[in-house]
Each structure stands twice: as C-alpha cells, then as structure tokens.
Here is the input.
Amino acid sequence: MKNYDALKLENQICFPLYACSREIIKQYKPFLDKIDLTYTQYITMMVLWEKKSINVKTLGQILYLDSGTLTPLLKKLEGKGYIARQRSTSDERNLIVTVTESGEALKESAVSIPAEIGKCSNLEPEEAVQLYRILYKMLNDRHLEGEIL
Amino acid sequence: MKNYDALKLENQICFPLYACSREIIKQYKPFLDKIDLTYTQYITMMVLWEKKSINVKTLGQILYLDSGTLTPLLKKLEGKGYIARQRSTSDERNLIVTVTESGEALKESAVSIPAEIGKCSNLEPEEAVQLYRILYKMLNDRHLEGEIL
DNA sequence: CTAAATTAAATTGTGTGCAATTTAATTATA
DNA sequence: TATAATTAAATTGCACACAATTTAATTTAG
Here is the structure.
C-alpha cells in the first residue's frame, strides 16, 4: 500500500501560510472599512506614504503585484482622490503615481491601525521575529532565483 | 514631527505573509497545470483524498473558505469528473461531496508534487518546523476567538 | 537611420475570496 | 402544531490575482 502522507493537508507548509494570510487580512477589514480601503489598497498606500512618488513597475516589484492587479486598483485610489497618476515626461511608458494631499491626510487616520492589529495577535515577540525572518528569507530566495548574483 | 514608522511596509508582519503565500502558490502552478488543478482545487482534493466524503460546511471549516468560494469551485471539480455532489438524504440542507474513481486516480499524479515543491525551498528543516508551529498557533488563536473553551 | 527587440502599462479572461442576501430545509418554541 | 428561528448552500456583486495578449514608447542592432 503506497504512502500518500505527503498529500495530507496537515503536512503542507503552504496551506497554513495561505490560510493565515487570509485570516489576518480579514482582521484588518473593520479598521480598513473605516477609511474606505481594501487591504491591497492599504499596502499600496503604505508604499506611497513612504516613497511619495513611484512608477507602477517599481511599485509592483515592492508589492509582488503586476499591472493587471495594480492598474485597476490605482484607478480606484485615484477615484477616491488619494493618488494622482501621470505619465513620465522623460519616458512616457512609465506611469508615475504620487500621493495627493488627501492621500497624505489619510495617513493620519491609518496610523493607529498597526497597533490595533497587534493587539489581536497572541504571538510572543520572539515568535514574531522568527516568523518575519523566515518569511523574508523565503521571499528573497524567490526574488534572487535565476539572477546572476 | 510625528512618527509613522508603524505604517512602513517593512514593519508589517502581514505583508510578507501575504506575499509569501502568493509566491509559493505560484511555484505550484507548473506542477498543478499538468493535472489541470488550481491551487485551491488542489487543497480541496487533498481534503477529499483523505476524507473520501465530506459536506461543504465541514470542508469550508477545514480550508477556511465559505460556500461563496466553494460552490463554484466544487462545480468545476465536478465538471472535471473528480468529485460528485449530492444532497444528504437525512438532511437535504447538506451537500455531500465525494471523490470519484477518476478523482482517486488523480492522487497518483499528484503524489510527487510535495517533494518537487520541497526542492524549491531553501528553508532549514528547523525553520520549516518553526514556521509551521507559528502559523498554526496564529490560525488556532483565530479559530478559538469568541468560543467558550 | 530604421527595423527589430525590448520595455511598461493596459487589457482580457478566468478563478478565486468574501460580505451580504436569498432560498430551502430543519429545529425550536409559543 | 403552526410559526419563528436557525442552518446550509447557493447566489450576487465587488475586488483582487495573474497568465496571456495588446498597445505604445524607447532602445538596440544592422
């Protein structure tokens, strides 16, 4: 009788990653609803609050998202007035995204969210550190694949 | 000058979880394409290979998915011939999902996938163990919320 | 210098994910 | 026991994700 244990859900590492990611994003929802952002829009604004100005390609590299996801999302954020979209004059292939004043003001409403979410977590500080380190190790492994380095 | 560091992407724990989950699911794609399954269909089949028969509600509790996601997905798996869907005779509110012979045969084509994916990971065994433990701790915390226990 | 190759966004189409509502079946209660 | 409450799926509507293709701008090569 062949052994199929490798196919059991409980033996997967990807499944809890996938489930956990979605469960935590759900925890954000009540807080993000108050400022009318989805989770993906929220992390997009995070990058913009930090960078002020960025093109779609670079934004996509940071968020691990492509234009198929970002183009409609950025149009929505533009519709809400939080960002502006304009083509680069030096290279019109590039779309430059910038934060508006209204988008900058939104940061004030968002600043308390990380602490609120932190309260919901029962992870020990060292567990959070371990988790963070391991996740970025996996992400970087994938980033570097096929590169010269 | 107020401190907004908590809003930096690099200070989030949810973001690498979200990004990592999607990146690893992408690694599955070439293998899952060969057996014509999406990742969500794949983990659904995993549960069915183990349980043989299950109703939608229980399946949803295991996978952290609701009927809004599962109903169309299960119809697709039924269309591919891997599962059968039928109402319970004892309680017609319940839909019972069972694996077909074809679905059982698919397990043979899938059994090598976990090892193939494992090859792509550069995690040390103890890191994988830590990651697994922390993720399930977070998942269980959420599962138990608001329960008597 | 110009055609080919490359690049960046946008578009298209499919498949989730999930909140909210609806439908149908069952259970609890007045 | 008729009705109200509850439960399980299905449905609806919106927002991602992402592969594949298209469009337009820029670079590269011959």
Notes: The CA atoms of residues 36 and 80 of chain A lie 9 Å apart.
